[in-house]
């Protein structure tokens, strides 16, 4: 199997960078797109990398934020892939800072496209679900109280109802060298995500974890907790992308020497 980053905050000039994340997972039988970026970068980067829409049979959405779902409009008017998502991914949500609300849910055009799909093209992920042999989506992830996964996220524009982003989910692929875990923003917490995957998959070895770890505003205590637990879990390779945050990447690189490789558009992992 091969993993190829199509959208990320980081990209060399021949690609388009944006605040978003999307990764192509090429399995033996088919290709799965995990998240779609915010919209503008996906089709451009895919064409530079020689990835066509017709190659992708399955799209998994980690959660409903615009920077993971906006690229769904790539399929407008085309034969649609099968979409794996939580019903909560469709809800309206906002970032509220200093009384200013900004919508950060799935863009209206993407939501309309999802709503137009025939029922047999949608799989609602309310629990762990096998996409194909050795390739799973987690469904909602059990969380540990030790990871502060809060933020300025609300279900209303007034900022009264915190958005727990309960739908946040990851994917895992079984390889001979251990599990490869892919996270979107890891709103459930990256340690909780890995612990959940290990428990549900009944595995002990994590070969690699790739994706957004959502540590940009994390305290030193949380970074320390994260590094200690990634070491305890024996994660062989970490590929922090998207919303991990530069300071967090430096911290993890120092704490987990030799195990951190920074991701960007065009980055590949093969097993
Ligand atoms: Fe994100
Ligand atoms: Fe997010």
UniProtKB/TrEMBL annotation:
UniProt-listed InterPro entries: DHPS-like_MBL-fold (IPR041712), Metallo-B-lactamas (IPR001279), Metallo-beta-lactamase_dom (IPR052926), RibonucZ/Hydroxyglut_hydro (IPR036866)
Pfam families: Lactamase_B
Domain of life: Bacteria
Ranges where the Metallo-beta-lactamase domain occurs: 19-242
Family annotation (SMART domains): Lactamase_B
Signal peptide extent: none
UniProt-recorded name of the protein: Metallo-beta-lactamase domain-containing protein
Molecular functions (GO terms): transferase activity
């Amino acid at each position: 199997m091969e993993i190829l980053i199509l959208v990320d905050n980081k990209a060399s000039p021949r690609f388009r960078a944006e605040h978003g994340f999307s990764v192509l997972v090429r399995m033996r039988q088919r290709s799965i797109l995990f998240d779609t970026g915010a919209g503008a970068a996906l089709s451009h980067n895919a064409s530079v990398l020689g990835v066509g829409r017709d190659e992708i049979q399955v799209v998994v959405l980690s959660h409903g934020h615009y920077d993971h779902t906006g690229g769904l409009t790539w399929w407008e008017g085309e034969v649609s892939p099968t979409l794996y998502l939580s019903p909560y991914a469709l809800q309206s949500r906002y970032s509220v800072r200093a009384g200013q609300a900004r919508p950060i849910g799935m863009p209206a055009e993407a939501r309309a496209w999802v709503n137009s799909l025939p029922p047999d093209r949608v799989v609602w992920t309310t629990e762990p679900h096998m996409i194909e042999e050795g390739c799973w989506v987690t469904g909602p992830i059990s969380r540990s109280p030790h990871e502060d996964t809060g933020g300025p996220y609300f279900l209303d524009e007034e900022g009264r109802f915190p958005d727990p982003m309960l739908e946040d989910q990851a994917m895992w692929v079984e390889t001979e060298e251990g599990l490869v875990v892919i996270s979107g923003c890891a709103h459930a917490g990256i340690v909780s995500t890995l612990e959940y995957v290990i428990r549900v998959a009944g595995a002990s070895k994590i070969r690699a974890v790739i994706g957004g770890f959502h540590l940009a505003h994390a305290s030193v205590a949380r970074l320390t907790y994260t590094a200690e637990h990634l070491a305890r879990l024996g994660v062989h390779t970490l590929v922090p992308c998207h919303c991990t945050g530069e300071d967090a990447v430096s911290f993890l690189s120092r704490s987990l020497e030799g195990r951190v490789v920074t991701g960007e558009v065009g980055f590949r992992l093969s097993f």
